Amino acid sequence: MGVVACGALAGHVRDIAGRRGWAVEVYPLAPLLHNRPAAIAAAVEAVIEEVGDRHRRLAVAYADCGTYGALDEVCGRRGLVRLRGEHCYDVFAGRDVRELTEQEPGTFFLTDYLVRTFRRSVVAELGLDRYPGLRDAYFAHYRRVVWLAQRPTPDLRARAVRAAAALGLPLLVREVGDAGLERGLEELVNPYPGTAEPGEAVSGDLVEQGS
Which residue would you say has higher pLDDT here, 199 or 66? Predict the structure, then answer.
């Protein structure tokens, strides 16, 4: 089975597939597409075209991620399924995200990937390194940062603290793990519980292609 994956999720997909013994080949897209969601659907479809009939089944490890239905249109036309949810935060911690947002609508969420790549994914992409004054314009209505931690380590904790400080906001850490993503992937790998196609959902290696 092939999985076209958000680059920010590809490492987690690899880890989960490895421990579950799923024979999956993952095709990661550039993580920074999240900053240009209008380009996600076309990028996913381009990979689908490139992969062709290499796999019996293909699935998409993306939530909607700001495509406003464009990704669903591609998946529907191609007969594919994607992860449930509106964004990566939903995939990792749907109920927690809703509760946290209800408590404080001005919440800026981080995942492990965003903590690890904060300077490139947020600071540089928003131009805050070149124009620090933009911070107050971009984040004027945010009141806190919430790190939805998959695998918190001392290094990632220190990075999360620095990220929140860079935005001038307090940090809340919510350890959510990757169980939500695992459940979503299970639906993609084996959409009919109790059955499995030959050569799929069995022991094997997941090979990550690209960067």
Answer: 66
